């Protein structure tokens, strides 16, 4: 499905189509996604870790039947890792091959010809952003953009406003259809206003009880319904308890439900729950708190 | 917009939908959300797509006009006020009051020097200059006039950012071979082997996080500490973050990025809702760690806490949070205004609780001690 067919979409359709891929979202997120598709704006998602920011991009790609191009940001990432790079060793080899074949017969025109052949598309290594523009339509996921330096943001800005990349030796690569862009951030630092202004913003919260049960049911159908409900209820209660160093996200709920299932549980019991706690909480202090909570909840 | 705001239910129908929506963006701007013209345009486009129903308008506003969780809360508040009952709309901010800049100091170090070549042979000068005295005076005990002079002296505090090694590489005359650059250079000579280019890791300014206690017991120092924070922010705007701790945690970085110190302090005053309130240090540190610190702001950073350690709440929580903070941060510096005073013993429960987890425990009651703080941070 391309921009042409998104015209007929309604926010409700977006929720339904995302739901068909196993991504259950609340109406507001569906509305923002709809706006991003229709307005051709990048979507900036922020929220606690494990609330499904990255998963949304994957679901959108699957729902629209588009390839997903992922750019994982990290400190020190620069244009050669995000955009394109020339394959220098192959270029040098090519030059040597030209020398061996043609010898010195080439005149001035030959030199120009040889130089032109050096900067051919086959020596171009397309990194994620260029790949997304070339493959268009595509879904471009810029993951954890807050980890990149602020210089990199300025560079993203340029790409996201024009959806084109200029390669001095080759010319301008323009996306036939602008890609659907999803940026995610964990708010380790405040993004620059200029970048935020170009995006639609959405803060993803932890889902409510019923939705989380539905999510776990759809993502891990092998886990029994009774176990799912018990797990989700406990996790929701843990989240409400602000004492935890790292409240578990949906990803952890899923992990834990699966872990319990692998241990053969069909209902939550103290022994298996305590044994598989490593899937739910990742801090020693949290482990102790959760164990105490388990005792309270599961004690007969 | 003026008519839209004063319009009553009877006359509301004459207003264009766009006018009402744009009026809302103005109201939102007045409430402190940075709504720019292009955001407002996007908002109109989004509402046009979603239809004028309440849900659509709300979702459009949240997506296009907001830039963070704080903005979302403000948006919902203004939304309710603007479209429902129209009371409680925030007023536009009054213009920043103009402040006079104080002229040169009445006495300078140079005033006593050079009175004659004959008198300084065996006379020991026992009097320090006024400025030097002022540098060592307790900030909280100054008269308003002295305070004003001290304000001017803050320009002499010159913080330097600490450095760390970055993941980026810079070319250098020795070190690892930079294969890409070397090959690019050789390509320029049609494949002839060229000079080998080296590279090494570059350095970047390390992040500095300042947590300033603005509770009642610290009220005498709040002004001076914020001026110090302003100096830090101006020295390295991208890598310094400031928060105030009081009854709640307030992010102050944006206000302190204003270049002029007086205007920055006015902006800070408008941002912080809880001057001279109580302190819940432990809870504040906890919410800092949860909302900002652990996600990355404090990671590898130099965290400086300006506080006297008066804790209203549970000191066990404070100790736990300080320990966590020291584990996340590169270095934890605790600046206590009472430390430099004669006869001070770290006996307050709060200070006792945090002391085991603190890397540097320094004084912070006078300009001279602030220069030391600057030095400690630069060396971290």
Automatic annotation (TrEMBL), chain A:
Pfam families: AAA_5. Transmembrane segments: none annotated. It comes from the Bacteria. InterPro entries: AAA+_ATPase (IPR003593), ATPase_dyneun-rel_AAA (IPR011704), CbbQ/NirQ/NorQ/GpvN (IPR050764), P-loop_NTPase (IPR027417). This is MoxR family ATPase. Coiled coil: none annotated. Residues 39-219 form the AAA+ ATPase domain. PANTHER family: MAGNESIUM-CHELATASE SUBUNIT CHLD (PTHR42759:SF1), MOXR FAMILY PROTEIN (PTHR42759).
Automatic annotation (TrEMBL), chain B:
PANTHER family: BLL5662 PROTEIN, BLL5662 PROTEIN-RELATED. CDD domains: vWFA. It comes from the Bacteria. This is VWA domain-containing protein. Pfam families: VWA_CoxE. InterPro entries: UCP010256, Uncharacterised_CoxE, vWFA_dom_sf. Signal peptide: none annotated.
């Amino acid at each position: 499905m391309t921009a042409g067919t998104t015209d007929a979409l309604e926010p409700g359709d977006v929720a339904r189509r995302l739901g068909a891929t196993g991504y259950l979202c609340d109406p507001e997120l569906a509305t923002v996604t709809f706006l991003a598709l229709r307005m051709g704006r990048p979507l900036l998602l922020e929220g606690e870790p494990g609330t499904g920011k990255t998963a949304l991009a994957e679901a959108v790609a699957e729902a629209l039947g588009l390839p997903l191009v992922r750019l994982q940001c990290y400190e020190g990432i620069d244009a050669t890792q995000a955009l394109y790079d020339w394959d220098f060793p192959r270029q040098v080899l090519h030059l040597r091959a030209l020398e061996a074949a043609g010898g010195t017969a080439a005149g001035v025109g030959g030199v120009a010809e040889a130089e032109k052949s050096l900067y051919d598309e086959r020596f171009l290594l397309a990194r994620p952003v260029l790949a997304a523009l070339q493959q268009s339509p595509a879904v471009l996921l810029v993951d954890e953009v807050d980890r990149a330096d602020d210089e990199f943001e300025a560079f993203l800005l340029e790409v996201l406003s024009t959806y084109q990349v200029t390669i001095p030796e080759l010319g301008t690569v323009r996306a036939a259809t602008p890609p659907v862009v999803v940026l995610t951030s964990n708010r380790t630092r405040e993004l620059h206003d200029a970048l935020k202004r170009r995006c639609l913003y959405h803060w993803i919260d932890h889902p409510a009880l019923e939705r989380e049960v539905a999510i776990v049911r759809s993502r891990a159908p092998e886990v029994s319904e009774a176990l799912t409900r018990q797990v989700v209820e406990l996790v929701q209660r843990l989240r409400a308890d602000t004492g935890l160093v790292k409240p578990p996200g949906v990803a952890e709920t899923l992990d834990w439900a699966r872990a319990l299932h692998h241990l053969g549980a069909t209902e939550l019991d103290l022994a298996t729950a305590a044994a598989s706690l490593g899937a739910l909480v990742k801090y020693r202090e949290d482990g102790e708190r959760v164990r105490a909570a388990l005792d309270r909840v599961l004690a007969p | 917009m003026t008519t839209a705001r004063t319009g009553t239910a009877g006359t509301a129908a004459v207003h264009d939908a766009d006018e009402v929506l744009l009026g809302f963006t103005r109201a939102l701007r007045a409430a402190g959300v940075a709504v720019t013209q292009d955001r407002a345009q996007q908002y109109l486009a989004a509402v046009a797509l979603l239809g004028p129903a309440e849900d659509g308008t709300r979702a459009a506003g949240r997506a296009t006009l907001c830039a963070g969780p704080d903005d979302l809360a403000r948006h919902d508040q203004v939304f309710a006020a603007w479209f429902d009952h129209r009371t409680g709309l925030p007023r536009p901010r009054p213009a920043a009051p103009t402040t006079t800049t104080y002229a040169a100091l009445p006495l300078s170090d140079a005033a006593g020097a050079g009175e004659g070549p004959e008198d300084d042979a065996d006379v020991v000068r026992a009097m320090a200059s006024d400025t030097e005295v002022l540098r060592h005076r307790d900030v909280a005990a100054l008269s308003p006039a002295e305070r004003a002079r001290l304000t001017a002296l803050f320009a002499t505090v010159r913080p330097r950012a600490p450095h760390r090694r970055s993941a980026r590489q810079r070319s250098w005359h020795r070190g690892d071979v930079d294969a890409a650059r070397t090959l690019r250079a050789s390509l320029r000579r049609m494949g002839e082997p060229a000079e080998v280019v080296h590279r090494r890791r570059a350095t970047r300014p390390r992040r500095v996080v300042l947590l300033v206690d603005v509770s009642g017991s610290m009220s005498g120092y709040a002004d001076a500490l914020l001026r110090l924070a302003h100096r830090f922010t101006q020295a390295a705007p991208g890598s310094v973050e400031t928060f105030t701790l009081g009854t709640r945690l307030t992010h102050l970085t944006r206000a302190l990025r204003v270049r002029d110190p007086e205007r920055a302090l006015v902006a800070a005053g408008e941002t912080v809702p809880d001057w001279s309130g109580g302190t819940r240090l432990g809870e504040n540190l906890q919410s800092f760690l949860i909302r900002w610190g652990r996600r990355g702001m404090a990671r590898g950073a130099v965290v400086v806490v300006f506080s006297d350690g008066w804790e209203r709440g549970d000191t066990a929580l404070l100790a736990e949070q300080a320990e966590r903070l020291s584990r996340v941060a590169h270095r934890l510096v605790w600046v206590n205004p009472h430390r430099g005073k004669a006869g001070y013993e770290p006996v307050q429960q709060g200070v006792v609780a945090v002391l085991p987890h603190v890397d540097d425990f320094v004084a912070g009651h006078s300009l001279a001690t602030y220069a030391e703080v600057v030095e400690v941070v630069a060396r971290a």
